[in-house]
Inverse folding.
């Protein structure tokens, strides 16, 4: 069993990383910054949930992190397609 | 130590949640709103996990990551992008909004504290469900017992609501023309062509795991349906509508939507024929718990089918109508 105090810095660092992504997704300046920020935020959510379920003693709930890891790409794909359509129309 | 960490993560996430909600209000373009909405969904899902509401977190994860972003992106148009800038509301509107907000905050003082064991909802039915569902239904996940057996009528109602919503979208958007695809779609990108055919089967496998593992862990028909829908929507995003028609035609999507509700309803009829009440699964097999297992398995399959095909139908309808403007 991992020493419990080690969880504290892990959570602090993860929350800091989430805060950074949040700031970037709010400020932009370009829409691509926001897309990368939301992707990073999604990855941090996967990690946060994975570490939290381990820390709280219910490692079987890691399914939720797995689900995010598996289908997080769908939104990014839709965004890519949206910009593809925009370029075809000559907006970019 | 764990309680300290719990409180810290809780507070950190609540701050992120509030900040992202404020940013959403100030947001001035549809695309940024969609991105911030996804961020909000990630945060609230983590909070659900911390509150031990893993089934709710599972639903939020499946819907937030798999469906809502895609559907929102289908309905916005690139021309909307330079939307109106955020304007502060007038003084009267500000006063009314602030007063309403303060009244709502005042109202929360009468609500029980989070996790208070003396709340009526925790002292009456919940204790009975927690203590007796093990012997009456015989499956470990109490949420599934309550959802599928004790509250089977409510869940039937929910499935009918999902079906009705899907049908309404079909009726409203039936006039849309089939979209003109560029022909090659995203699949012409070599990274996507290599990676995606390997990921989609895994997504479908995970959906089946969630579907049939719902008795033991978080998940069930609703979540599995959304995940399966997300897998099929990925295929639709990658290719064009012609290939999608070859994989699964719109006629079969509509049949699937209705078929799931039919499976659910027929399980109820079967239990009546077996001598029990409507949706009383105990009579479906030799022993009462075996009957409950079988009934829950069958109705969860019905739920999964309806949800998956409704998600697919929503995507197809929205995608089609999003292209009629030009």
């Amino acid at each position: 069993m991992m020493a419990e105090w080690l969880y504290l810095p892990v959570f602090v660092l993860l929350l800091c990383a989430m805060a950074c992504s949040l700031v970037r997704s709010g400020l932009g300046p370009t829409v691509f910054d926001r897309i990368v920020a939301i992707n990073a935020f999604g990855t941090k959510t996967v990690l946060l949930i994975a570490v939290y379920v381990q820390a709280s003693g219910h490692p079987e709930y890691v399914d939720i992190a797995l689900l995010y890891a598996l289908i997080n790409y769908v939104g990014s794909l839709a965004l890519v397609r949206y910009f593809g359509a925009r370029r075809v129309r000559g907006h970019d | 130590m764990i309680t300290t960490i719990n409180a810290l993560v809780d507070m950190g996430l609540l701050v992120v949640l509030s900040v992202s909600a404020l940013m959403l209000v100030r947001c001035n373009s549809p695309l940024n709103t969609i991105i911030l909405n996804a961020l909000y969904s990630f945060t609230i899902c983590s909070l659900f996990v911390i509150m031990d509401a893993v089934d709710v977190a599972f639903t939020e994860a499946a819907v937030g990551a798999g469906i809502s972003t895609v559907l929102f992106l289908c309905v916005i148009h690139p021309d909307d992008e330079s939307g109106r800038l955020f304007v502060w509301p007038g003084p009267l509107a500000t006063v009314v909004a602030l007063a309403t907000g303060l009244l709502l905050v005042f109202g929360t003082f009468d609500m029980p504290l989070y996790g208070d064991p003396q709340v009526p909802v925790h002292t009456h039915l919940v204790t009975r469900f927690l203590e007796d569902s093990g012997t009456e239904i015989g499956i470990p996940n109490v949420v599934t017992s309550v959802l599928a057996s004790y509250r089977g009528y409510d869940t039937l109602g929910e499935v009918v609501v999902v079906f009705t919503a899907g049908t309404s979208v079909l009726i409203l958007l039936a006039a849309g023309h089939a979209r003109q695809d560029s022909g090659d779609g995203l699949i012409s990108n070599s990274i996507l062509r290599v990676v995606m055919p390997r990921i989609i089967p895994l997504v479908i496998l995970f959906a089946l795991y969630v579907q049939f593992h719902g008795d033991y862990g978080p998940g069930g028909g609703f979540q599995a349906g959304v995940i399966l829908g997300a897998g099929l929507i990925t295929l639709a995003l990658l290719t064009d509508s012609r290939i999608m028609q070859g994989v699964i035609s719109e006629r079969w999507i509509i049949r699937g939507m209705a078929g799931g509700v039919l499976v659910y309803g027929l399980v109820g009829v079967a239990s009546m024929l077996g001598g029990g009440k409507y949706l009383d699964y105990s009579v479906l097999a030799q022993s009462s718990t075996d009957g409950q297992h079988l009934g829950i398995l069958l109705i969860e399959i019905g739920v999964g089918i309806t949800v998956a095909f409704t998600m697919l139908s929503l995507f197809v309808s929205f995608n089609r109508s999003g292209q009629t403007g030009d």
